[in-house]
Amino acid sequence: FLFPERAMRLMRQHSWPGNLREFAMVIENSVLFALAELSGVGGDRADVVQVRPKLIRDLLRHTVSDAAKVDGEGWTVVVSVKPNESLNKVAQECERQYFTHLYLRERGDFPAMARVLLGDESHSRKVQLRFNQLGLKVRELKERLG
Questions:
Q1: What is the per-residue pLDDT for 72?
Q2: pTM, entire model
Q3: Which residue stretches of the chain are H helix?
Q4: DSSP code per residue over 114-132
Q5: How many CB atoms lie under 10 A from the CB of residue 45?
Q6: Cβ within 8 Å of residue 45, ≥6 positions away
Q7: Is the per-residue pLDDT at 52 higher than 50?
């Protein structure tokens, strides 16, 4: 696999807040997507698979650090909306994704999550209760934190 200089520069400039796990995910996905492109197009040289810089840029754009941004209006999170049987289920899935991003951003600190959501750390129990109601598992998310 060949990573052009531009792709390497994009990866060097990225802050890698997810550390090795995030890096491994980007490399694995870039290899898979490059192989998929090669098989779909026929490719130039079967012995060299080039990973396009645009692919690296797109993959880095969708990491945890870039999916969550704070601006003057509050905290922005990119969520994926998929059709479901009811609006309530769609809303719950969006809320699950939001809580997951927030948990990862705050490194599992429920008082910090309460401060972001409700403006007061003393409401951490409410946040943890909603977290559980959404079916989110602390153990699984702790594994993602590393």
A1: 52
A2: 0.53
A3: 5-13, 19-41, 53-61, 64-67, 87-105, 110-118, 124-133, 138-145
A4: HHHHHS-GGGHHHHHHHHH
A5: 9
A6: none
A7: yes
Q: What is the per-residue pLDDT across 74-98, written as a single tens digit (0 to 9) for each?
A: 667 777 888 888 888 888 988 998 9
What are the CB-based long-range contacts (under 8 Å, 24+) for 31-39? 31/1, 33/59, 34/1
Q: Do 51 and 34 contact (CB within 8 A), yes or no?
A: yes
Q: Which two tokens stand for residue 30?
A: 């870039």
Instruction: Output the six-digit token pair for 55.
Output: 């692919």
- Give the integer Cα–Cα distance in Å for 105 and 1: 32
Surface-to-core class of residue 120, CB atoms within 10 Å of its CB (0-12 exposed, 13-18 middle, 19+ buried): exposed
